UniProtKB/TrEMBL annotation:
Its main location: cytoplasm. GO terms for molecular function: 3-deoxy-8-phosphooctulonate synthase activity. It is found in: Cytoplasm. Belongs to the KdsA family. The keyword Transferase applies. One of its GO terms (cellular component) is cytoplasm. This is 3-deoxy-8-phosphooctulonate synthase. One of its GO terms (biological process) is lipopolysaccharide biosynthetic process. It catalyses: D-arabinose 5-phosphate + phosphoenolpyruvate + H2O = 3-deoxy-alpha-D-manno-2-octulosonate-8-phosphate + phosphate. Residues 13-259 form the DAHP synthetase I/KDSA domain. It comes from Muribaculum intestinale. Keywords: Cytoplasm, Transferase. SUPFAM superfamilies: Aldolase.
Length: 271
């Protein structure tokens, strides 16, 4: 089956999950996180995609960590896929990166700030890989239909859209749950990013803040609204993470969260 079919493959009609660290910091950490998430998602019949950025291009400060090297990180992503038999997803930032990353991963993710970049979207689509477009913090849900159309017009029907909050003032984001059914009308899976939606950008120190204590609140509301999938960044020790530690979920908390969310999903399906 292709990647899109896999995401819809849960026999219990559960949500699917994109989860992993913000950025690949090394092979051991990636395999450790993947092993733990595979165990709980297998138990709960949640189709799972391992997430990890091979490079972070959008950094507030020039001295921020960006990665361990493109090829090295991409090889680790491929090893996760080969070891655990799950798809993997990573971000791309330029049209030239699309073909390179597609050799290693199953889903190419378009960062929110780049969701209107036509050449990037078309290049991702033409690789034949599934494309996950994050909704720009500056766009309405309805405006994302144009991004979806670009992927389809380039000959690729495997596309998803991710809600990750809308800019609210200078240092906060807000999730408008009306956007989930609005974007589902495009005929694509809609994913809720329960971690980046809680970012607090534009901090004076140049390091983005966050509210990880509200991840479960955001995720519960998304499941209740009928979202197709969830996106969660997680790390064994977020305080030591090299990127986005302020809004990541501690890995030890993920099993309990997924069990609770699966119960809510089952209740919603009962309606």
């Amino acid at each position: 089956m292709n990647t899109l079919e896999y995401l819809k493959s849960s026999s219990s009609d559960n949500f699917f999950l994109l989860a992993g660290p913000c950025v690949i910091e090394g092979e051991e950490m990636a395999l450790d996180i993947a092993e733990n998430i595979c165990a709980i998602t297998s138990e709960l019949n949640i189709p799972y995609v391992f997430k990890g950025s091979y490079r972070k291009a959008n950094r507030s400060r020039i001295d921020s960590f960006t990665g361990i090297g493109d090829e090295k990180a991409l090889r680790i992503l491929r090893k996760v896929r080969d070891t655990f038999g799950v798809p993997v997803v990573t971000d791309i930032h330029t049209a030239e990166e699309a073909e390179m990353a597609a050799e290693y991963v199953d889903i190419l993710q378009i960062p929110a700030f780049l969701c209107r970049q036509t050449d990037l979207l078309v290049a991702a689509a033409k690789t034949g890989r599934m494309v996950n477009i994050k909704k720009g913090q500056f766009l309405s849900p309805e405006a994302m239909e144009h991004a979806v159309t670009k992927i389809r017009d380039a000959g690729n029907d495997m596309v998803a859209v991710t809600e990750r909050g809308t800019t609210f003032g200078y240092q906060d984001l807000i999730v408008d749950y009306r956007g989930i059914p609005a974007m589902q009308k495009f005929g694509v899976p809609v994913i809720l990013d329960a971690t980046h939606s809680l970012q607090q950008p534009n901090q004076p120190a140049g390091v983005t803040g966050g509210r990880p204590d509200l991840i479960e609140t955001i995720a519960r509301a998304g499941i209740a609204t009928g979202v197709d999938g969830l996106f969660i960044e997680t790390h064994r020790n977020p305080s030591c993470a090299k990127s986005d530690g302020a809004n990541m979920l501690p890995l030890a908390q993920l099993p309990t969260l997924l069990r609770r969310l699966s119960v809510i999903r089952a209740a919603i399906n009962g309606f």
